[in-house]
Amino acid sequence: FKESLLEKVLYKDIPEVFSVSEPRLLFKIMQLLAGSPGMIVKYNQLGSDLGIDQRTVKSYFDFLKASFLVHCQYQFSKNLLTSEKKIKKYYLSYPCFANFLSEEPHKDTNINYLIENLFVTARDSRFFYRSSTMQEVDIVEIKGGVIIPIEIKYKNNIDKKDIKGISSFIKRYSPKKGI
Questions:
Q1: d(Cα 74, Cα 128) in Å, to the nearest integer?
Q2: What is the pLDDT of residue 1?
Q3: Run of H or E including 75
Q4: What is the pLDDT of residue 49?
Q5: Per-residue pLDDT, 105
Q6: What own/partner pairs with CB < 8 Å and gap ≥ 24 does 2-11 have?
Q7: Closest to 138 in 3D by CA, of 150, 124, 153, 146
Q8: Who contacts 93 (Cβ-Cβ below 8 Å, separation ≥6)?
Q9: Cα gap 163→157, rounded to integer Å
């Protein structure tokens, strides 16, 4: 799968369609997402870490998104233009990619992040929430004008710290329910 599909798309198809000078960086970005699904991406910081220009990093994420390999979530704001300008979270479009991109499948990626990745992509979630105090909600859905915050946990017991993000969201936006 890795050789026949992922590497073909990353090293051949995307460079043929878009102007990609370093396809290995596409693969590196995918590996980073496999190890940390839902990572908040700051193009300037990632560019610095990878030794490339932030505009190139942004372009490569756009190419991966256009190729349906990654899923982007925007920071929730009632003003959609504001959401577009804020930080973004990226996930693999298919959580199973994590196994093919990892050098040691099932070891590098925390199962909790893969479950979050599964729900975010299955629900085709467009938004997440992050407060100024770094409280987060994994999914913010808007259905028929109704806002629903959804927090994803994969554990037997939920404690107070697990619901801080959704509590923060509810205080700020007053939705009728949260999940």
A1: 6
A2: 62
A3: strand 70-75
A4: 92
A5: 54
A6: 2/100, 2/101, 6/30, 6/69, 6/97, 6/100, 6/101, 9/67, 9/69, 10/69
A7: 150
A8: 68, 69, 70, 71, 121
A9: 12
Task: Say what the pTM is.
Answer: 0.89
Question: Quick one: tokens of 42?
Answer: 């700051």
143: which 2 tokens? Answer: 């259905």
pLDDT in tens, 64-94: 999 999 999 999 988 877 777 888 999 999 9
Q: At what angle do helices 23-35 and 43-50 cross, to 10 degrees?
A: 110
Please give the order of strands across the beta sheet that includes 70-75. 39-41, 88-92, 70-75, 127-130, 136-143, 146-150
HSE (side-chain half, CA atoms, 13 Å) at 119: 19
φ, ψ of residue 137 in degrees (nearest 5): -125, 130
Secondary structure string (H, E, C) spanning 76-128: CCCCHHHHHHCCEEEEECCCCHHHHHCCCCCCCCCHHHHHHHHHHHHCCCCEE
Measured on CA atoms in the order 106, 111, 114, 119, is the torsion positive or negative? Answer: positive
Beta bridge partners of 73: 89
Residue 79 to residue 135: CA distance in whole angstroms: 20
Q: Which residues contact 145 (CB under 8 A, 6 or more apart)?
A: none
